[in-house]
Amino acid sequence: MEKSSKIYLAGHDGLVGSAILKNLQAKGYTNIVTRKFQDLNLIDQGETASFFEAEKPEFVFLAAAKVGGIMANSIYRAQFIYENIQIQNNVIHQSYLNGVKKLLFLGSSCIYPKNATQPLKEDYLLTSELEFTNEPYAIAKIAGIKMCESYNIQYNTNFISVMPTNLYGPGDNFNLQTSHVLPALIRKMHLGKCLEESDWAAIRNDLNKNPVEGISGDNSNQEIIEVLKKYGLESNPNGNEKTEVQSPVSISLWGTGNPRREFLHTDDMTNACIYLMENINFSDLDKNLKEIKNTHINIGCGKDQSIKDLAQIIKEIVGFKGNLNWDSSKPDGTFQKLMDTSKLNSLGWKYKIELIEGITNTYNHYLKVQ
Fold this sequence. Notes:
By secondary structure, this protein is of the alpha/beta class. It has helices at about 15-25, 45-55, 70-75, 75-95, 135-155, 180-195, 200-210, 220-230, 265-280, 305-320, 340-345, 355-370, and strands spanning about 5-10, 30-35, 60, 100-105, 160-165, 165-170, 235, 250-255, 260, 265, 295-300, 305, 325, 335. Strands 2-1-3-4-5-11 form a six-stranded parallel sheet, sandwiched between helices. Strands 7-8-13 form a three-stranded mixed sheet. The chain has a three-stranded mixed sheet with strand order 12-9-14. α1 (about 15-25) crosses α9 and α4 packs parallel to α5 (about 135-155). The longest helix has 21 residues, at about 75-95. The protein starts with 6 loop residues before the first strand and ends with a helix. Residues about 240-245 have low confidence and may be disordered.
């Protein structure tokens, strides 16, 4: 890509997309095209076709997707498979029809089988069944990988796919109804800290910025307490005997806390994506293959920790002093999803931001926007 190349960034206002936009601008790219959902619905084939015919982008970052955590994946299964497949089909096909020089499609580590050997190598794709809770989303992303490969084979396009591990960072989704585990933990710990300090001004400010089930800072204390209780934040008038400091608040979290997860800061993720767009072509990925498959690239740090350990890290960073209670009646999801990043490392890229630094950065940003 040249600094003046016309780049279409689909999904520029999401966690990944907003980070890519910021990074591209910082690197001096000056011709970036974006559209908000209300101006361009990528689920609609006609709207997408008209956009590509009018704009004729040279490069495309496909970061637009419907995403969410284990709760959202369980509730919105039909929307997750339909909307993601529609977005991918429309953007990838129009990129081919309109002569896009290069496209980068972003997937997810959930594409891999639930019982695959750790760490997850690209070659493990489609070797056994998926984890049930995120199966619709995973199937959609697998379809995107195969669509990119198939268009490259048949039409000689230059479409590459990347599979990031769990991402986090400034701009994350902190909606308790749809967020992934790390931002959900940050917000719950923050609200828990505010509750134990009886800082109702901070609680109301938080809910005004991001209401929960329609409950904002304008609601009564009791209404706020009731909705937060639904998401595991519970007052305990007798204090908490298991912590060094007595706390009137405890937080209940889904599952056992034993599953392990790998997390990558969005700044690292975007650096990897731009590096690949600047330096790597599809032809670099299919060398010496008897069959052209599994050409996607894992993006991660290659290290993980249990959700229980992650919660403890966030608890200490935020300063919440109450108990964390694990509800084993709720699903854990896949036990482990650690990425093998040897392919990416061999292509010349490696992560830089460690977890504690990244979470601290994310929480500080969260406080600034409250």
